[in-house]
């Protein structure tokens, strides 16, 4: 029974099937909200799926063998890491939780930007390298408040996500979640923190040199990052001890979509900041929120 | 197999991504192309996106009569776009050199350099006409329309780095 549950969790929900379909849905929702707020009609519902299929059908440009291999392996690894992160989300109690799974989840989520930095540098394009360098600095900037907030949340529960959702106190939870929400636009390359992808300004940033199927994989990895981060926020935000599975799933989906809507609206209504401004913003407001959450945890409140 | 093929054709029809190359245009055509992205025309409804990198594009939109300095860059960009790809000549300039014909710095028209698949006439063309031209290019990508026959003196497109 436990194996069956684990298999369902890996392949169906919140694993493969849900993750891929939700990633297309979230990419569409973000573009649609952006368009509606600009007074446009926006892309049709199936657009991200057709974009993905079309990219898969393009013939990649010939490259030296090693470079071609690395440029394919990096996006494949990013997709795999993000799928793993989504499958780890404890939406339903599976009985397979272990202390410290928060560390594994965060590590998988962090692999994405790391591979993107590598991907930018191996593409050997000036714009790819510029995007990668910016992404590397951004990682240092937003991860400080992000990780502090997660540590504050997990302090009392052996860094286990499922226990953490029930043990964290409300003041700590509120402050830490606010800090995490603040970091999400930066992690997803959204305005006002879209510095590393900065479309048109540095061409396409990290993905400038990626074509056809390789680009399709990066797009999928980006969609899965949306699912993983929105899902992480959802499982951390509402404790549901002893609630029926259907309700757990519904609450999880509702909060995930809410996060996407919130981030998309914020992205559509702001303009891009500079790197120094972003750093100041995160290290002041982000750290203030996350640091006070950590302070409250340590004080036992 | 045929279902996969028809899915691929539908995807190609519904998701044409553009790369815009300015080959010495007077900027009139460029402004009209950007107009297509505004709320009034909103080409994102058709899945059309203006991409910053030629590696991501399916359709190369060229405006301008092709000057001596942009000729080589055009060939590079053409090689950088992965197959299958379509070239759209935007405005009268790439079709005939327009008012710039006879200038010593102009090496156009465009079909001497790249195999042009769709011409959008006008100086500058209206956004409606540009959208119709892009839709035609997408139809060529999807295989709904045959590709026009090209002469062999143009670049083969295998050059890009
Ligand atoms: S066709 Fe007319 S508007 Fe377009 S670039 Fe040429 S001169 Fe300018």
What do you see in this structure?
The complex is a heterodimer of chains A (301) and B (161). Chain A is an all-alpha fold and 301 residues long. Chain A has one domain. In chain A, helix 2 runs parallel beside helix 10, helix 5 packs antiparallel against helix 6 and helix 8 packs antiparallel against helix 9. The longest helix of chain A has 29 residues. The mean pLDDT of chain A is 86. Chain B has 161 residues and is α/β, with parallel strands linked by helices. Chain B has one domain: Rossmann fold. In chain B, 34% of the residues lie in helices and 13% in strands. In chain B, strands 2-1-3-4-5 form a five-stranded parallel β-sheet, with helices on both faces. In chain B, strand 1, helix 2 and strand 2 form a beta-alpha-beta unit. In chain B, helix 1 runs antiparallel to helix 5. The longest helix of chain B is centred in the last third of the chain and has 16 residues. Chains A and B meet through helix 3 of A and helix 1 of B. The site of iron/sulfur cluster (SF4) has 13 residues of chain B, from helix 2 and helix 4.
Topology overview:
The complex is a heterodimer of chains A (301) and B (161).
Chain A: H1 2-11, H2 16-37, H3 47-56, H4 65-88, H5 101-122, H6 126-154, H7 161-167, H8 170-187, H9 212-237, H10 245-268, H11 275-298
Helix pairs in contact in A: 2-9, 2-10, 3-9, 4-5, 4-9, 5-6, 6-8, 6-11, 8-9, 8-11, 9-10
Chain B: H1 2-14, E1 17-22, H2 28-35, E2 49-50, E3 59-63, H3 68-80, E4 86-90, H4 92-96, E5 118-120, H5 127-142
Helix pairs in contact in B: 1-5
The complex binds iron/sulfur cluster (SF4).
Residues 25-26, 28-29, 63-64, 91-93, 98-99, 123-124 of chain B line the site of iron/sulfur cluster (SF4).
Question: How would you summarize this macromolecular structure in one to three sentences?
Answer:
The complex is a heterodimer of chains A (301) and B (161). By secondary structure, chain A is mostly helical.
Characteristic terms for this protein:
heterodimer, A: mainly alpha, 11 helices, 0% strand, B: 161 residues, Rossmann fold, five-stranded parallel sheet, globular, binds iron/sulfur cluster
